[in-house]
Fold this sequence. Notes:
Layout: H1 3-36, E1 40-45, E2 50-58, E3 62-67, E4 70-75, E5 79-84, E6 117-122, E7 126-134, E8 137-144, E9 156-165, E10 170-181, E11 186-199, E12 202-213, E13 221-229, E14 234-244, E15 250-262, E16 265-273, E17 280-289
Antiparallel strand pairs: 1-2, 1-5, 2-3, 3-4, 6-7, 6-17, 7-8, 8-9, 9-10, 10-11, 11-12, 12-13, 13-14, 14-15, 15-16, 16-17
Amino acid sequence: MSAKRLLFLVTFCFAFTLSVSAQISEFKATFVKAQQNNQEVAVTLSDGNTFSGFVVSVDEESAGVKTKDGVFNFQYDRIKEVRIVDPTDKTSRWYQNPASNKLFLTQSGRMLKKGSGYYQNTYIFISSFTYAIFQNLSLNAGFSTLPGLGIENQFYTLGAKLGVDVSSSFSVSGTFRHYQFPDFGESANTMYGAVTFTKNELDITGGVGIGLSNESNSDPIFILGGQLRVSERIALLSENLIYPDGSGEVYPLGSFGIRILSPKGAIDLGFFAGEDIGAFIPFASFAIKF
Length: 290
């Protein structure tokens, strides 16, 4: 092994150890605070299972929580998240929305947590993978598997999303994606910026995007959408696009549907409709977190 590779490996391991240690310290501090104030906690493990109860013990490697099924000792290295339950707010018991970072088709202003990602499948034949390498940066890669076409004729995409939480209520992001169409020997790019306002279980997103190609650029596309979580497992979803044609005419495209949530993923079911389309277009997609 060369000296450069050895240095990189040591640096990576050291950074990873610091990250894990900081997370464990955060978990322990939350358990200690909950025990001191006699507050209920909700503990989500790495496998997605969530338990709630009152803290009865805290040590260097684990915390004991008394749940309705008895006392469990949770090892810090098996924990994904710990949060204190607000007895006046039933939503504080809910698991986190695994798809708060996106609408049906476009991205919201919210970001994935560092080290998390998901696989998404749309219309069966379009797949993509998204992974957050940092809290403020996630990468995306996708491809099609359209029947009847060889591998060399499928399209693929590569992209990146940068974002930041301006406050607890406002998040801003910018997304760039490259699309390659080998069958036509062409490519295109899109740039999209989004701002999301969050209030309790409601997210409202506004954005604007443009398409870029070798020959010309598109007019700006304006997007207004939202997501309202009405229960732990169900959210209502809408995404509405406006396409100006440069001559004063606009072409709206609206959508509405539901998002079925679980700790490990989400299923989107809905439809798109527009005056220039003259029909309802069904939409189906699912995402699995990893």
